Amino acid sequence: MASLAAPSCTAGSQRVGGEARAGKPNFVIIFTDDQGYQDVGCFGSPSIKTLNLDRMAAEGMKFTNFYSACSVCSPSRAALMTGCYPPRVGITKVLFRRDNIGLNPREVTVADVLKGQGYATACVGKWHLGHLPEFLPTSNGFDSYFGIPYSNDMDGVEDRDKSLDRAWRQKDYTPWNPPLMRDKEIVERPAVQTTLTERYTKEAVKFIHENKSRPFFLYLPHTMPHVPLFVSDEFFVEDVHKAYKATIEQIDDSVGQIFAALKTAGVDRDTLVVFTSDNGPWLSKKHHAGSALPLRDGKFTTYEGGMREPCIMRWPGKIPAGKVCGEICGTIDILPTFARLSGAKVPADRVIDGRDVWPLMAGTRGAKSPHEAYFYYRGTTLEAVRKGRWKLRRSKKKIELYDLKADISEKNNLADNHPEIVERLANVMKEYDNELKANSRPPGKVEKQA
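Given the sequence above, the corresponding structure tokens read:
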């Protein structure tokens, strides 16, 4: 884990950029659910074998200070799609079937930006930005959708045993009733969760081959490893304490199939692939959850384990191989960066919080994070800010200050030692939060039937 200390992105003097490319690149985002910072071999997992992700890192760049914008599903995904902190676009909580809100179709998503540049766009996997037709992927810039519209533990069947150990051993997904959808139609209910990862992968591979002659954007948000965990028979192990390991290793196998498809289709060198997760591990699920070590805590929190994610990016000949970037960046930067690389413009009629981080990805000598500060929201509350090595966290009248360069695990609260830093960062938080709240936009809403 020594690479965690990497202060910047280094890659020698290689000069790459959007101007030098012939044609538009393809984009693939592989987005897992509740995967911990440590749950990749090259990020330090002591037991999970991720040969394909490790190879991806060896052929690309590992980002060790890469953040989601929230520690729970829906807000995190809203940020990825729009380039905005979740409260900016009105998605501040996990969405359930009872909710009549979703990502506002008036928002400009990554898919909208790329579709405007002639890209084929597909979402394959978990959406979780509104299950009503008005909010599904095909209403938000995607040509097609195949997946489940929310978390796989939702739509629980009354009076059914939902023990995670029992469900794993018996391969029993029937206590949960989420639908599998194609575009806006339900094609299977309950979704057969034991084959979801396998079917998502086949759908993604098919999309790659069908669109190899034009630029494409593939968004592959896996349902797993959100509980309940399930894998195909090939990856099944009886030991429930190895269920999480098996689940991640099937996802890794999926990653390998995606790269094989890109190579077979002849577009490997024309494709930028990003791998990351929506938030940290659901630690209360014990052996059905992952690990964010050496980070503190996990899902639902604004400690590092809740929002700092494993991230790997690969684009042969453009992103230098085998490098590590320690600069601060995150999912909110995907939209403006993809816009730049595709020749599009970032929407000018609204505030976008993300920044173009291509200089970091390209390994430009001396490149630094474009973020003067990075903000950690929990719901509508701004709980923390990071500025360089310093992180201020305030919740329930508790003030915490950490030096993340010296204390990545957030063990030593230095608030009493540096009141001047606390005051300065508190002012940064207040100023940013005031601006965001003054320039926020509403979620989409469908009026409930009387």
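Residues 24-361 form a domain with the Alkaline Phosphatase, subunit A fold (CATH 3.40.720.10). Try to locate this feature in the token string yourself.
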